[in-house]
Amino acid sequence: MNATEDKLDNYRLTLNGKEFVPIMIGGMGVDISTMELAHEAARLGGIGHISDAMSPFVSDRRFKTRFSKSKAEAHKESVGSFDKSSVHFELDDLREAQQRLVRSAMEQKTGDGAVFINIMEKLTMADPQPSLETRLLAALDEGIDGITLSAGLHNNSLRMMENHPRFRDVLVGPIVSSVRALRIFLRSAKRVNRMPDYIVVEGPLAGGHLGFGEDWKKHNLEVIVDEVIAYLKENELDIPVIPAGGIFTGTDATSYIHRGASAVQVATRFTVSKECGLPERVKQKYFEAKEEQVVVNTVSPTGYPIRMLTTSPCLSSNIKPQCEPFGYVLEKGKCQYIDAYKDTPYDADGKKCPVEGKICLCHHFSKHNCYTCGHYVYRLKDTTTQLKDGSYMIPSAEWIFTDYQMSRNHEIQRAEPGQSNEHASHSSALRL
User: Fold this and answer.
1) What sections of 176-293 are H helices per DSSP?
2) Are 131 and 92 in contact (CB under 8 A)?
3) What residues does 352 pair with on adjacent strands?
4) pTM exceeds 0.85, yes or no
5) How confident is the model at residue 1 (pLDDT cuts 50, 70, 90)?
6) φ, ψ for residue 285 (rounded to 5)?
7) Domain covering 8-278+392-431: architecture
8) Pick from 301, 415, 292: which is nearest to 357 by CA?
């Protein structure tokens, strides 16, 4: 059977002896990949992620804690200064926030699948090593099924977890965008005698920050996946490879299975699911998106290219740097947005002009004003029904998951009103 006629449900991903439906929902922050979305993936036999992006803020919003406010109060003396070197995280608060999120996610999990957490290395850079270790160990403490290591090479992450009693039991895998990055990670893995359980290979069509430079168009996910699989085979390493970025249909997924991959990671189509953490207004913007509105720019103060919609309210805003309550991308008290804000002039009325070239990432992510997206976001309108008022119907995560699992020939089963028992009706329709 060729990949076009095949369906993803014919395969299973095996990790540490346990089988999963070979669908992994990526870890999108800030609380875009919610625990509710991860729970649906797990219930359906796949793998869902929560994200630890800005976990203290997410905890404040979900559990009415006040970590962000406490941090702002502790560092209020730096508000009038562009030097933020005194702004740091209270590690006990960071630990408690992470523990609350993971504990809640694991206590409510059902089904035969798993809930993972996506942990970024390039986050909380005001305290890079202590904060990363705190987040990793807190996730292990609360029984997370797996940890996906993203946004960095994670040279020391395995070493940080080495003495934890769950180090050998928890599933762990990196996100890489090249054989070179994988080779670096595997060297660190060998030092602690702990090979990854899986490898997510993310291509240039993924959403959010990219693991490529401004030459991202020159790269191709299929080529990178082939290179990674060949490298593992040459080194006699039997590690499942999970492609990510631009996998929009079940047939896209099976094409990678036929190339030797073991599963796929998907995200864009789930951004508009009922369980996704984006507000309704943003989901509708994603549905309305046109191809020409999808851009890769350099407005992120992290220094990495980022894919977003040109309709994002964050572009050309003039918000004052929000380092005291947030400060997640501060590095040695500095941030590219602070520099851009400082150099932006005032208008004739004494008001700050729009800041060009950079955005206050922490603030705009907290407000969902940065419409980060995968390359194929403009195709989302073809996955559901436009209603009489012009808005688009929001499908369930179950509906989208099952479409990936059961569809053939690049077909997408459009979500329609009245389909209350999505999983059963959708599955039977696709099997005919």
Assistant:
1) 179-191, 221-234, 250-258, 280-288
2) no
3) 346
4) yes
5) confident
6) -65, -40
7) Alpha-Beta Barrel (3.20)
8) 301
